[in-house]
Amino acid sequence: MNQRVIYSFNARDFYRIHTDWLEKGDSHAGIILGQQNYSAGEQMRRLLRLISAKSAEEMQNQIEFLSAWSEN
Q1: pLDDT, tens digit (0-9, with 9 covering 90-100), for 3-33
Q2: pTM for the complete prediction?
Q3: Residues with Cβ within 8 Å of residue 71, at least 6 apart in sequence
Q4: Which residues are within 8 A (CB) of 14 and not within 5 positions of it... i.e. 6 or more apart?
Q5: Would you tell me how many other CB atoms lie within 10 Å of the CB of residue 71?
Q6: For residues 57 and 3, what is the distance between their CA atoms, to the nearest angstrom?
Q7: Is 56 helix (H, G, I), strand (E, B) or coil?
Q8: Secondary structure of 26-48 as H, E, C letters
Q9: Phi, psi torsion values for 51, nearest 5 degrees
Q10: Which of 42, 43, 58, 68 is nearest to 5 (CA)?
């Protein structure tokens, strides 16, 4: 497995997948959930804030919502 964090706008399905995997005792490299109403530039700024703050190890089995990574 490549151990890559997934970035998706499909919050409903990926949140369910995350929950199902953890309940079964499986793990994943992490999931970032975004919103399509952000411009590409805003998405990149928020993603860069997130990846500068969290290591790959800290993302293990976690979900991060891009909405939480604004400048404020």
Answers
A1: 899 999 999 999 999 999 999 999 999 999 9
A2: 0.89
A3: 45, 49
A4: 6, 8, 31, 33, 63
A5: 7
A6: 10
A7: helix
A8: CCCCCEEECCCCCCHHHHHHHHH
A9: -70, -20
A10: 58
